[in-house]
């Protein structure tokens, strides 16, 4: 079934593309562009804004899985109900202001960004839309419910970010100390503190910080590989390259406590090698 869909009016697509642009700016160390994007996201997607209210409904249907069929149907019904209660005029007005800023400050190429889950986001938009036919909605809703009840294919698939309490925080530290021992480094403590605080505030600032820290780690790994003292150790060079590739994958992965532990272990490796 071919979807008639305007991605510029898909709130979730706008948000995902902004985050993608932000990650790119952080990696390139383009501070000016990063600040523009952070300001844009905060203004339009902070908690309480109308676009954030709509975004949360997209996330509920896009990021949930492993439900029973009854709960999945209830979730879809409730999401449609809440969506209908959001003022479409206000959403359109806020989207228009955001689109105008994107065209002016980011560029029209922004709308050509590849968003991996775009097809699902488009399907959700069609379900919410009044312009879809009854047949289209039934088929699309069946597909979305199928996603809600399906278990992830990968057993190690990362979970969406969720609130973390003191017990979980303590467990992360215990797991790390059990594997690697010793006192936490300053950068590791900073990472954990920011991770915890991200649940009381917007997680955007943590994502920016994490991308900057991962970029720092990658640069450190490059410096270590360039050290003359290890040039003859091909096995060590190979392992360092594998670690560097792992760090690169982190910048596009959803954040969970297991990922934080792995980043901490790499921070530890970099600190040891730098000595």
**What overall geometry do the principal axes of the alpha carbons give?**
globular
Query: Could you estimate the helical fraction of the residues in percent?
Result: 55-70%
Q: If helices are DSSP runs of H or I spanning 4 or more residues, what is the number of helices?
A: 12
Order of helices and strands: HHHHHHHHHHHH
Low-confidence parts: 155-164
Largest sheet: none
- CA-to-CA gap between the ends? 59 Å
Gyration radius, to the nearest Å?
21 Å
Mean pLDDT: 80
Q: Which structural class do you get from the secondary structure elements?
A: mainly alpha
What proportion of the residues form beta strands (DSSP E)?
Answer: under 5%
Extended strand count: 0
Account of the 3D structure:
With 275 residues, this protein is mostly helical. The protein has twelve helices and no strands. Helix 8 crosses helix 12 and helix 10 (204-225) runs antiparallel to helix 11 (234-250).
Name some characteristics of this structure.
mainly alpha, 0% strand
Can you lay out the helices and strands and say which pair or pack?
Layout lengths: L10 H17 L3 H15 L4 H13 L6 H16 L3 H19 L11 H11 L5 H16 L16 H15 L5 H12 L6 H22 L8 H17 L6 H18 L1
Helix pairs in contact: 1-2, 1-10, 2-5, 3-4, 4-7, 6-7, 8-12, 9-12, 10-11, 10-12
What's a concise summary of this model?
69% of the residues lie in helices and 0% in strands.
């Amino acid at each position: 079934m071919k979807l008639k869909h305007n991605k510029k009016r898909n709130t979730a697509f706008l948000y995902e593309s902004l985050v993608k642009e932000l990650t790119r700016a952080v990696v390139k160390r383009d501070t000016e562009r990063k600040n523009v994007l952070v300001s844009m996201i905060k203004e339009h997607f902070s908690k309480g804004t109308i676009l954030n209210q709509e975004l949360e409904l997209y996330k509920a249907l896009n990021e949930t899985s492993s439900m029973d069929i009854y709960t999945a149907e209830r979730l879809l019904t409730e999401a449609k109900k809440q969506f209908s209660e959001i003022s479409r005029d206000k959403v359109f007005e806020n989207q228009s202001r955001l689109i105008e800023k994107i065209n002016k400050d980011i560029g029209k190429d922004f709308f050509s960004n590849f968003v991996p889950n775009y097809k699902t986001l488009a399907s959700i938009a069609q379900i919410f839309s009044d312009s879809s036919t009854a047949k289209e909605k039934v088929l699309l809703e069946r597909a979305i419910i199928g996603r809600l009840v399906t278990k992830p294919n990968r057993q190690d698939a990362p979970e969406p970010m969720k609130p973390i309490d003191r017990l979980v925080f303590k467990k992360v530290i215990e797991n790390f100390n059990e594997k690697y021992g010793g006192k936490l480094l300053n950068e590791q403590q900073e990472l954990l503190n920011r991770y915890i605080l991200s649940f009381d505030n917007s997680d955007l600032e943590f994502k920016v910080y994490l991308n900057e820290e991962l970029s720092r780690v990658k640069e450190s790994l490059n410096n270590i590989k360039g050290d003359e003292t290890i040039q003859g150790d091909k096995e060590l060079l190979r392992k360092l390259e594998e670690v560097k590739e792992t760090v690169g994958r982190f910048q596009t992965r959803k954040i969970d406590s297991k990922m934080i532990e792995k980043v901490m272990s790499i921070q530890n490796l970099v600190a040891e090698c730098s000595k």
